[in-house]
Amino acid sequence: MGRWEPDARERLVRAALDLFSEQGYENTAVAQIAERAGLTKSTFFRHFRDKREVLFGGQDVLAGLMTGAISGAPAEAGPLEAVEAALVATVGTFTDERRAHGPQRLAVIAGNDELRERSALKMVGFAVSMTDALKRRGVPELEAAVAAELGVLAFNHGYERWLETGGDFAEVARRTFSDVRAAVGSLERAE
Amino acid sequence: MGRWEPDARERLVRAALDLFSEQGYENTAVAQIAERAGLTKSTFFRHFRDKREVLFGGQDVLAGLMTGAISGAPAEAGPLEAVEAALVATVGTFTDERRAHGPQRLAVIAGNDELRERSALKMVGFAVSMTDALKRRGVPELEAAVAAELGVLAFNHGYERWLETGGDFAEVARRTFSDVRAAVGSLERAE
DNA sequence: TACGGTGATGAGACCAAGTCCCATCACTTT
DNA sequence: AAAGTGATGGGACTTGGTCTCATCACCGTA
After folding, report:
1. Separation of alpha carbons A142 and A135, rounded Å
2. Are B41 and B91 in contact (CB under 8 A)?
3. What does pLDDT average to in each consecutive run of 10 residues of chain B (191 residues)?
């Protein structure tokens, strides 16, 4: 355990989120975040790779859940079914507490280039993870890439929808993914 | 004109690319790039927003060409046809000289997180640009997003294919986009 | 030829991000 | 009680990036 208070990591996240909302991301120094959390700059960088990462914790866990679900999907399942399973598999991470500061987090990210950059990288990470997992099932390269990209798209739209409407994320994800598939169908029929 | 030699920007790009290849991106300081180009740190940052950007010049021009092509596509064209036109419209930027150091550039980007991050942001930028342009044509939100995402996917694969095979980028783009559409068809038929 | 204007550059101070190393403290184990 | 472990504090250091001011090349005009 650390010394003094526990939950250093969580305290840093909260302090960062609050300060970013109050003053903006670029006007907030790491030392200031650490200070509000009762810690120091050194400790901040022990918990997070860089200043951006404080807003993107647990994304690797998400990627793991996704690839796990794709690998574990029944052999008869098609690529799109496997991707849908990947989205549904992340349901456990969508807690009430996460929903509570979700909008605040999204607003901060939207307001800063560095953060949108990091967000984009995380999404690419998801796409790569799912593409690889699909290829391991024997799905051809390009089909795997397309299916994964559609999955990421649905994941993002689903996340925003979940923040607005609440409820079970698995439900929302299934509905959103179905909408995406419908959109694909419309595109095909359009010409 | 600047003082002394002309083409400061190009010299900086070349120096950066070479140094990154020789020593790696993180082991190269901006001051060093500037020095090899016969300039100073100040001048570097006058030409490029940050150290990463030296490898991503002209991406905004690409986005402009894409949205222009989508806006200018015939009214009867479907979203996918418009996106294909967007890819083809970028052909003018794919010069021999760009093809010459393309692989070197890709290798450097692949080897560094910051650069892959910037690359991801640029791709998201393309997707957003194309999505907006499609929406302005009356394409529903989700269909526009899917079509744009497929376009970016094809653009990336097309770029790599073009680096390998050479030839006219418009040709390569059309073929790649057709492959992507075929992959989408396979996914649909898969279940 | 001389002059002033313009735009790109050089130079250096300055701040914050991120790295590194070492000392310190709380807590556990023996 | 002593040794070990893991997280923390603290400070030096490098570098990315900003800002300001002086400088120089070039261009047009008188």
Report:
1. 9
2. no
3. 70 97 97 97 97 95 98 97 98 95 97 97 98 98 98 98 96 98 92 66
Check whether residue A6 has its CB closer than 7 Å to nucleic acid strand D: no
pLDDT digits (tens, 9 = 90+) for A42-60: 999 999 999 999 999 889 9
Strand D: which nucleotides have any atom within 7 A of a protein Cβ? 6-11, 14-20, 24-27
Asked if residue A41 belongs to a domain, the reply is yes
B80, B142, B157 member nearest A191 (Cβ): B80
Beta strands in chain B (DSSP E): none
pLDDT in tens, B73-93: 999 999 999 999 999 999 999
A6 token code pair: 């526990």
In window 86-115 of A, residues with CB < 7 A from nucleic chain D are none
Judge: A149–B145 Cβ closer than 8 Å, yes or no. no
Does A67 lie in the same domain as A48? no
Residues B85 and B134 in one domain: yes
pLDDT at B113: 96
Which chain B residue has the Cα nearest residue A50? B114
Expressed as residue numbers, the domain containing B115 is 56-189
Report which residue is nearest nucleotide C27 when distances run from CA to C1': A1
Domain membership of residue B76 (yes or no) is yes
Q: Are B120 and A121 in contact (CB under 8 A)?
A: yes
Rounded CA separation B4/A77 (Å): 65
Domain of A16, CATH number, reads 1.10.10.60
CB < 8 Å to B185, chain A: 188
| Cβ contact A168:A175 at 8 Å | no
